[in-house]
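Shipment paperwork, digital attachment
Item: protein structure file
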Amino acid sequence: MPASEQLKTLVDQMPAPDKRDMFNTDIDKEKIEAAIAEIWKGGKDNVLGLVDLLVEPGQGDDVKPHYALHALALHVCKLEDKEPRQVFAQTLASQLGGDRPKGVQAYLCQELGTAGGKEAVEALGKLLTDDELCDPAARALTAIREGAAEQFRAALPKAEGKCRLTIVQNLGVLCDEKALDALKQAADDADRDTRIAALWGLGNIGDPGSVALLIKAADAEPGWERIQNTKACLVLAEKLVAAGKQTEAARIYKHLRDTRTDRSEKYVRDLAEKALAGAR
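Attachment content:
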């Protein structure tokens, strides 16, 4: 709904950046906090009003509404009552996936990363196959965490290109064990970066069943993929040691010790030898 005149007056009290696009250090914090508290009294209507004041980047000056919406996100997170935060997040989530400019929706995703919870993950998940919004939606989901992995798993079969890569990366970040089969499949993807991300994810999850797969991948021809897959092996080995699976970890370290014979990979051999010595 269009912003009311009262809301616009309150938003106008937000600080404005100087000619360097920086905010002065003498901001009247009490004045700002009072204005934000007053904005929140309008609840959902004022949240929607703030969203209406946002414009596509480069299409107008909306610095103050941006400031107000972020300050409001912080405000509701500080309240002892959890309901205001939930209402705020639900309201922002309701504005995703529609006709609002993609730049505005990307900013709403950012604020959901600040104040969102499980009530926002479904709306964010629907953006994971959108080339322009996949990345901000993914960042918000990984910040929320609760319920995020399910959204990534559901979107993966439908995702292509950079969206697929982003989803694979974040399944690894979330250490989602339910995605092991999907990540193993992605480890054979036609796209190099997706393969690398999938292998790193398997390593970060610490899956002992992926030892052979990662060792094989780490023996790629010299180059970027070999370097990155070797890193994934080392990540997996560290996770296995931490989980008490020394035998599986030793298999990785011994392989790297015995196969990294070129001078350029001496650092890997040395690291593997040191790890094995420590295990003994």
